[in-house]
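User: what does the whole thing look like in 3D?
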Amino acid sequence: MAKAGYSGSYVLDFEQPVVEIEKQIDALEANPSAPRFAEELATLRSTRDTLLTKTYGGLTAWQTVRVARHPARPQTLDHVDAMCRDFVQLHGDRQCADDPAIVTGLARIGPFKVMVIGHQKGRSTAERIRCRFGCANPDGYRKALLKMQFAEKFKLPIVTLVDTPGAYPGIESEERGQAEAIAVNLREMSRLRTPIVSVVIGEGGSGGALGIAVADRVAMMEHAWYSVISPEGCAAILWKEANEKTNTLAAQALSLTARQNLSNGIIDAIVPEPAGGAHRDPRAASDALQGWIIDQLRDLSRVDPDTLVNLRFEKFRRMGSVRSG
Amino acid sequence: MAEQSAPASRERTWEDEGLGDKRAVPEGLWTQCEGCGETLFRKALEANLMVCPKCDLHMRISGSQRIAQLLDEGSFEAMDAGLTANDPLGFVDMKAYPDRIKAAQRSSGQPEGLISGTGFVKGRKVVVCVMDFSFLAGSMGSVVGEKITRATLHALEHGLPLIIVSCSGGARMQESGLSLMQMAKTSAALARLDEAGGLFISVLTDPTTGGVTASFAMLGDVIIAEPKALIGFAGPRVIKQTIRQDLPDGFQTSEFLLNAGFIDRIVHRSALRSEIARLIDFAG
Ligand SMILES: [Zn+2]
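Assistant: Here's the predicted 3D structure for the full assembly of 609 residues, as structure tokens:
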């Protein structure tokens, strides 16, 4: 049970001052004569809240990446647990494997029956290894497409939750056509005749993210990141070395925050997170996510499939920035 | 796409590690083959389509060389040649993106990394796009994505076959999310061409990796590769670092992809024109 608030063992350095205050709150609360310190407690809590709001209101791009990777941050299955009813997980790509790095299944969200698809990073060490830390194989992308086509057939809207550092780079993933699997998803998602809503809930790493995110509406959670490459990858190439300093510079250069992606026209909305990030209050994060998704599904349910597909095409058709000669 | 490391040159994109060995052949009377070391008379090499007569290495060629080799002489008409890159994100690493663009324009003699237009292959009219590796490693930013999209829609509108010759390290980092979105944009345009019954022949040359492979390059109705080209999603060095194992011989080559079932044919450069013409006739 959380005490003063978030009490995970993993502490981000820039959260340290907040943690110090939380320790004092915990100590006071544990004191048998706590009621006598009500005033002090209230002051401490308010100081903590102010500090959290301030810290999280001014995160640098690299700090955002680290929040997005926080081990206690809610993952796809946590959000599904919190926002969905009657979740029926569906496994396998019917060709080769069942990739645990992408989970798919039927569920109810508010008044809607949907197909949910999302990257899963895993929580325990064993699960994280099994999920390859959210890096999907081609089988994962093919499973996702198969379930999306099921959704299209039965006129169910699709909800995808993106949380991956990138598609898995391995021998088998190349042998089984990682590039082809992602490419086909991009093409097929662009013409699926059912609404698609995507949210980057944590990490949105490159083609591995986009492979389930060609959607009518795309949002990012407030402290998620979305970019063509990870800051470390970018730093290693453009700055020759990935370290704390170059990662910070690369993250800044990549315009990967929710706010920047919104202003660059890559996403449509930002889903606000509770003060101090989703890892401090996963339930509140899921509630906000659920609210946004339901709003979009309600809007999109009024659009006929032809119009929907045309609008989706036009949305991506407009993306980019060129200079005409 | 998870962890990357530095390639030899800053001009290359992240997908491109380990690809730096085969550079475009420098100008001069004589050229040394990087495959077998043979000294070759440049004019003879050009007449042989920049394929080493001794070891058959298919050397990397520029976009304009490719156009000249592929199309009937004098038939090419460029489209969208005036499109150039913006710097929408104000991207600066050790160099500013606009400076990289200018340097690439100077060294390649091209405004951007892709040439598109219409022309004829053995008398058959086509829409053609060719990528130029000498321009920022053939990386796909907004201009490359836009030109491919326009070319695809042009092919759709005029009922012409589309040919795209890929040669690229992947998406262009300096346009970040906007580059990434070109993958969706080009793939969506190809979905439309597909629905209209249009023919898309994708030609993969050395190298074709990253976001280019993971979008339009793998979506051909027919996918052809030149011999021994490096083709893949992740760069070999990234894979090696991730799995901490040596990669098998011939990993991510055209021949490897053919065996794995992801390309239709490996075609020698000297046969490319006639093979494309024949495919157009079958599909037409
Ligand atoms: Zn040779």
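In plain terms: The radius of gyration of chain B is 18 Å. The longest strand of chain B covers residues 200-208.
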